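In this supplementary section we document a worked example of the pipeline. Step one takes a protein sequence of length 63 as its only input; no multiple sequence alignment statistics are reported here. Step two produces a three-dimensional model, which step three serialises into structure tokens for compact storage. The input and output of this example are shown verbatim.
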Amino acid sequence: MTTEASPALWVGTFHGHHRGAKVVATATRTDSAPLPYGWECSCGIGQRFPTEDGIFDSAWRHT
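The serialised model returned by step three reads:
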């Protein structure tokens, strides 16, 4: 659900491992950001994109 208080729209999650530790990368769209599409991993790394092209491939490769 998207509200004015929370402009991010959940898009998807990717589960994987980094050196044996479980991680989750969450892809989102934030309309108020200059680069609205992106993903952030529970390891602290993330990436932003101007369009949704490549967001899922990038998050999947990271995890």
